[in-house]
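Below is how a single chain appears once it has passed through the pipeline. First comes the sequence as given, then the structure the pipeline wrote out for it. We keep one example in the README because the format questions we get most often are answered faster by looking than by reading.
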Amino acid sequence: MGFDPQRDTAKVYATDGAFRESAMRMVAADSPDVDAYARHGGKILFFHGVSDPVFSVTDTVRYLGQLRQRYGAATDGMARLFTVPNMAHCSGGPATDQYDGLTALVNWVEKGRPPERIVARARPENPDVTWPGRTRPLCAYPKQARYNGSGSIEDAANFSCR
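Resulting structure:
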């Protein structure tokens, strides 16, 4: 049948421009059946900006929940979600949106070390940031970065994932 822009976008947008449903529904592969991938030891790292204006972080959290329903505790051995506070779609916004997900994935796959915490940095050239160079830990969901109570609030070393 194929994608029909008039028919299919009418399902998502109202005539006043309001969203009728999440844009994620139109593009997401949302089946929690990743049996073959899991059997082969596949690892999935999700990063989602909490302020993404296109896709709701709620949809990604829901999908992780579907994986947990299907695979139970084994989910943590194959999938991790890291939400990025204030980050827009893929990057930008007043956020610590620079992080090395690839090294985290390589360490997980090749060294068996699943990521619990990934340090992110605010880009100095980001016009939305008033604290260039700030670092924060991104925490494996559902944990969140919490200030330890001492040290600079600009340094990820002074935060724990709880």
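The helical segments are 5-10, 24-27, 35-39, 57-71, 101-111.

See the next section for the split statistics.
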